[in-house]
Amino acid sequence: MNRLSRRAFAGAAAAALLTGCGGPHSPARPEADRPAGTHTPGRPSTRPVRAAARSVPVRLRIPAIGVDTPLLRLGLAPDGTVQVPPVTAHDRAGWYRHSPTPGQTGPSVILGHVTVGAYGDGVFRHLDRLRPGDRIVTRLENGTSARFDVTRVRTVAKADFPTKEVYGDVDRPELRLITCGGPRTGDGYLDNVIVFAALSASR
After folding, report:
1. CATH of 6-23+57-202, one of 3.40.50.2000, 1.10.287.1490, 2.40.260.10, 1.20.1250.20
2. What is the pLDDT of residue 201?
3. Is 187 helix (H, G, I), strand (E, B) or coil?
């Protein structure tokens, strides 16, 4: 595991995006009010793909839901939880720098907001619309890119966040995208949306 001990990584990861998914002035729109998705799900790749060299991710694209965002580097907050991106008008996702870089063996973790307070929708507003086979592309600092195919999407209660499933060791390059979801409360959301994806190509 990179830089951070497995114990510290798991402990910090448990609170990855349990808070900070939007301010109190951003009521969630009902599902019925959301525009229909335009993507056509495909089948995830099952052939083995060689792991990529370590290189920091600088951009994330998810064509199926219109995401094209620069990536911040996130670390740990003073209380030991994983940082989340700042709430700003120009919302961006962030890569957790104590996880593997995209394309390396292990789960690379990217966090984003579903809403950003008075600014409205967050960069991961439609993350729950992804389906198996949808493409995710991370552009890396060394000029290469790592492409992933979605394998599954889960919505889980924050109280039951599956830390081991999200952050635990895996024997291939994988990606995790995390945001908030589910019912809205006074200061956030009750659930987390987690996208699981596997490397399908690197170049």
Report:
1. 2.40.260.10
2. 87
3. coil
